[in-house]
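task queued by scheduler; priority normal; single chain, no ligands, no partner chains; default sampling; output format set to C-alpha cells
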Amino acid sequence: MNIAGYIASIFIGISLGLIGGGGSILTVPVLVYLFSTDAALATVYSLFIVGITSLAGSYAYFKKGLVNLRTAVVFGIPSIAAVFLTRTFIVPAIPAEVFTVGSFMVTKSILLMLLFAVLMIFASYSMIKKSKPDNDALLQNKAFNYPLAILQGILVGTVTGLIGAGGGFLIIPVLVNLLKLPIKTAIGTSLVIIAINSLSGFLFSLHHLSIDWLLLLSIAGVAIVGILIGSQLAARINGAKLKPAFGWFVLVMGIYIILKETLLP
C-alpha cells in the first residue's frame, strides 16, 4: 500500500509543477487512504509536504521571471494571519464528535474531509468552464486590485488552516479570473503563496503534535522529484488545455471523497 502512496506522491509534485495547485487535493486523500493517517493529522502533514514541495518548485518559475512578487506579498500576508487564527482557535475548537444524523455520527475527521470535498467540487467549476482567451500584455498593464487580493488572501488562508490545503485549487482561479494574471505567472505566483501559507500553517500546528518525520520527509522528497518533473512539462504543455482536464479530476475526487466518507465508510 505504501508503494501506491509514494507513486501518488510523485503526482502531488507533478500537479503542483504543472498548474501551480492541486497538490493538497491529492495529499490529504493519499495520507488518509493510502498511508492510513488520521484526517486531522493528515491536514497538518499535508501543510508540510505541499509547502516544502511548492517552495522547491517556485524557484524554477522565479528564475524565469514568472512570479508576481507584489501579488504574492499582498495575498500572502493576510493569508498567514488567517492561517494562524484558524489553526490556533478554530481547529482546536471543533469537537471530536460534531453531530449525529440518525445512526450516522459526523466526527471531526469526517467533517474536515467533507468540507475538503465540497470545496474541491466548487473549485472544479472555475477550472472546467470555458473562458475567453486573454491578452497577456493587456493583463500585465491592468490596475492591481488590492482589496480583492487581500480578501481572497484571507479566504485562502482560512481554507489552508482548516483543511490543510495549500489553496492552489482556489488561488489559481482567483489569480487568473479575478486578478487577471497570465496563466504561467499565476502558476509561479501560486507556488510562492502556497509555500508561505502551508509552511506557516505547519509551524502553527507543531506545538501539540508528535510528528513522524521519517514518513513526512520521505513523502516530501518524492513529491519534490515530481514537482521538478512537472515544472519541465509545464513549459511544453498548453495551460489552457491542462486546466479543464485537472478540473474534471478535482470534481471526480471530490465526489469520491463524499461517497467514501458517507455511503462507503
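post-processing summary
- The chain has one domain: 2-262.
- The mean pLDDT is 83.
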